Amino acid sequence: MDRFVILSGCSGGGKSTLLEALKRRGHSTVEEPGRRIVIEELEGDGSALPWVDAPAFARRAIAMSLADREKAKATSGTVFFDRGLIDAASAIEHLTGEQVLASLGQSHRYNSHVFLTPPWPEIYVGDHERRHDFSAAVAEYERLRTTYPALGYEVHILPKIGVGERVDFVHSVLDLT
């Protein structure tokens, strides 16, 4: 769907901060499935955590991403997603070799412009939900940096600038006012 825009890239690169700034500027936003799953799993006794059962975690992220897309159809205007279906499908393929990316990636399209946060060690911070180290975040970024163009998306690497300037950059690429 052309009005669904993906923010992806390196963990700890400022996606959530950018998403919040876009929300403050009046855009609809969808929070990262992975972080929501981790919070739910930690509150219960679930095991679909990336450091316990990564494939189960990625499968939940696919299901949540599909549900997020359905829910977002009811909103108007541009909707920004902090990660989403392509990231989760890429993770499944990386972890298990299961070929899901091509079918999911073609049947559930996003806007052709995808924004990636690059590795930014100066702002990277682990926390209760983000337990992987910076090198794992960089490896994921490199995988996604090749995945999106392979599916026909135009990747825009977000510059390492302030969040307001990043919002302006996104608006400029998408020709939003």
TrEMBL record:
Ranges where the NadR/Ttd14 AAA domain occurs: 5-166
Taxonomic superkingdom: Bacteria
InterPro entries per UniProt: NadR/Ttd14_AAA_dom, P-loop_NTPase
One Pfam family recorded for the sequence: AAA_28
Descriptive protein name: AAA family ATPase
Taxonomic source organism: Rhizobium lusitanum
